[in-house]
Amino acid sequence: MTKQEKVDFVIDTLNDIYPEIPIPLDHKDPYTLLIAVLLSAQSTDVKVNEITPLLFEVADNPYKMVKLSVEEIREIIKPVGLSPMKSKGIHGLSKILIEKYNGRVPEDMEALEELPAVGHKTASVVVSQAFNIPAFPVDTHIHRLMYRWNLSNGKNVNQTEKDAKRLFPKELWNKLHLQIIWYGRQYSPARGWDLDKDVITKTIGRKSVINEYLKKKKK
Q1: How far apart are CA 182 and CA 165, in angstroms?
Q2: Distance from C-alpha of 213 to C-alpha of 218, rounded to nearest angstrom
Q3: pLDDT computed for residue 176 by the predictor
Q4: Rounded distance, CA 187 to CA 77, Å?
Q5: Is 64 known to be catalytic?
Q6: 51-75, pLDDT tens digit by residue?
Q7: Residue 139 designated active-site
Q8: Which of 162, 187, 216, 219 has CA atoms 20 to 30 A from the CA of 122?
């Protein structure tokens, strides 16, 4: 298979499995999405979706959020981990949104990345899911699968993002990055991986990855 044929195979297979894509993090607007994505760093979406209703019941916009102290925010979000940094970030970015953007979340990647505790991946998720601007946020699942599928060298997430953007059509980025995340969770996880269920890797996977898998299975 040529690289283009592999890319087409990935797109077709993911469209067959996920014609409709559920959004992983519960939210109702750009602000609640921004907070949910920020909280999801080094945590699970399931855990974040348990905590955000408790936080948003008290403060679901920047004006209400700044009325809470950093300690009060931290107390609510503690179960998601990294709460000292995240609570400061949430309070700080809410203040900036009020002062600079009339309480609205900017649609611009650079403006988002300037906010406290907001990195490139968080900004990418917000522009793609809240504003439908093409972006390709790379999480651990996408990074792992792009390497397994021999579509990126696995060097770092920046390289994976560059390769994904180069290989996949821009109009598919927003849908595709979510499809790959769901596929990674369900069929190609880091642990407990069953190659027989992972049709994409089985068909186009990197030979060294498949050989390593088979070697471990024999032991």
Answers
A1: 19
A2: 9
A3: 98
A4: 30
A5: no
A6: 999 999 999 999 999 999 999 999 9
A7: yes
A8: 187
Specify whether the CB–CB gap between 133 and 107 falls below 8 A: yes
- Decide if 86 contacts 38 (C-beta within 8 A): yes
Give the pair of three-digit tokens for residue 85: 């940094």
- Catalytically annotated residue among 6, 60, 86, 139: 139
Answer whether residue 219 shows pLDDT above 80.
no
| Count, residues in the chain | 219
**Calpha distance 4→171 (Å, rounded):** 16
pLDDT tens profile 169-203: 999 999 999 999 999 999 999 999 999 999 999 99
- Residue 142's contacts (CB-CB under 8 Å, 6 or more residues apart) are 136, 160, 164, 177, 180, 181, 184
The DSSP code sequence of 36-98 is HHHHTTTS-HHHHHHHHHHHHHH-SSHHHHTTS-HHHHHHHHGGGS-HHHHHHHHHHHHHHHH
Please tell me which residue in 121, 170, 207, 215 is annotated as part of the active site.
Answer: 121
Longest Cα–Cα distance in the chain: 61
Q: Are 86 and 117 in contact (CB under 8 A)?
A: yes
DSSP state of 24: S
CA proximity to 165, closest of 152, 182, 155, 184:
152
